[in-house]
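Below is one protein, fold included:
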Amino acid sequence: METTALVILDLGGTFAFALNGALTALRATRLDIVGVVTLGMITALGGGTIRDVFLGSLPPATFLDGRYLTVAAAGGLIAFFAGSHLERINRTINVLDAAGLSLFAVTGALKAIDLGFGPAQAVIVGVLTAVGGGTLRDVLIRRVPSVLTSGLYAIPALVGATAVVVVELLDARGPIATIGAAALCFVIRMVGVHFDVNAPVPPGSPPPEDP
């Protein structure tokens, strides 16, 4: 049951990443249906693919389970056809996106640990899994990755990945500890969304330009 629940949440996060990624691309530039769906899928699946290539776990898990490709493509298609109407449920999309961020950060770090990587490397892999897809999307639409410029996004992923690695070092790994680490990441991300909190910037920095 726990495994099934995690898979469902993971697919939900993949869908939300694809939806959010495609919507972000639509806001930033003019794209046709191929561009929208492709960028949605890259946002949803890019982080996991980077993780598996980085870890030498080939072929990437994304291409071994067709459900992820299907869900990611569906998210991109929905964004293309209903993008103008989805702003009404932006909060729901943000919640799912935060859930996906949390799960990807934790599962990425755990996969690195299982393959014998050290604690620091596992944390880095967890963060890459969580934010890699969105970074690839922003590079493809020629803008500075949003994860580097605004919002509490990379920081929650870093905290969640670190938490699950610490739990592993304490030999306390289990479903409750794993879910707890993901929940910590989720809460931090949602606090950032709700209160519009951003990571610190250098003193005297100019305000960010609108994309």
The CA atoms of residues 149 and 176 lie 33 Å apart. The mean pLDDT is 85. The first helix runs from residue 2 to 28. Helices lie at 2-28, 33-55, 66-82, 90-114, 119-140, 154-169, 175-195.
